[in-house]
Amino acid sequence: MKPYSFFIMALLLTLILSACGGTPTPAVSFAPVPPEFAGKTSPLGADAADAGALNYATYCESCHGASGLGDGPAAAALNPPAANLLTVASQVEDDYLFWRISEGKMGTAMVGWGSVLNEEQIWQVVAYIRTLK
Ligand code: HEC
Questions:
Q1: Quick check: helix, strand or coil at residue 11?
Q2: For residues 82 and 99, is the Cβ–Cβ distance under 8 A?
Q3: Which atom of ligand 1 has the smallest separation from the CA of 62?
Q4: 83 lines ligand 1 (CB under 6 A)
Q5: CA-75 nearest atom, ligand 1
Q6: pLDDT in 10s for each residue of the chain, 133 residues
Q7: Can you list the domains of the chain with their CATH numbers?
Q8: Are 101 and 122 in contact (CB under 8 A)?
Q9: Which of 30, 88, 93, 110 to mutate to test the pocket of ligand 1 (most atoms within 8 A of CB)?
Q10: Which of 4, 40, 78, 100 sits a CA distance of 20 to 30 A from 32?
Q11: 20: left (phi over 0), alpha (psi -120 to 50) or beta
């Protein structure tokens, strides 16, 4: 056996063990943000959330609920159900939210809002989602 084989085996074993338990797997995993959206940050200031509230109420609340819990009146019949935005927002960066709101999520009732809301309005909604508790 070559001297470095032990090192490689130890490394593999560590990887296998850590995949089996060790670190807890998050309940939900999120798709990687596509390159054209990755790293985007909001160009808006601190007051953006206030401006986002109205568009959230108009376009999002029916499914995602007033507090973002995914419990809006239109959500009951959806499969998959509307996302709990508090859970999502706690696990992703703004670029992810901006991307999802712009382009939607295939195979779900979440359509892309990029043809309804302009970029500034989407950033305002992102800022509003960040204020939900
Ligand atoms: C017709 C119902 C409906 C409306 C209206 C709606 N959504 Fe969604 N939304 C969903 C569903 C269903 C999902 C997918 C949940 C899943 O994949 O588990 C989703 C997913 C999301 C996600 C991403 C969750 C993930 O897993 O990646 C975000 C962020 C989001 N919505 C924000 C919004 C915002 C902001 C608006 C308003 C501009 C909006 N949604 C309008 C139903 C809706």
A1: helix
A2: no
A3: 5
A4: yes
A5: 2
A6: 566 776 666 666 665 556 655 555 446 689 999 999 999 999 998 899 999 999 999 999 999 999 999 999 999 899 999 999 999 999 999 999 999 999 999 999 999 999 999 999 999 999 999 999 9
A7: 32-131 (1.10.760.10)
A8: yes
A9: 110
A10: 78
A11: alpha
Single-letter code of the amino acid located at 59: Y
Helix axes 48-59, 119-131, angle to 10 degrees: 90
Q: Which residue has the tokens 């007033």?
A: 66
Task: Provide the sign of the torsion angle of the four alpha carbons 101, 121, 61, 71, taken in this order.
Answer: positive
pTM listed for this prediction:
0.83
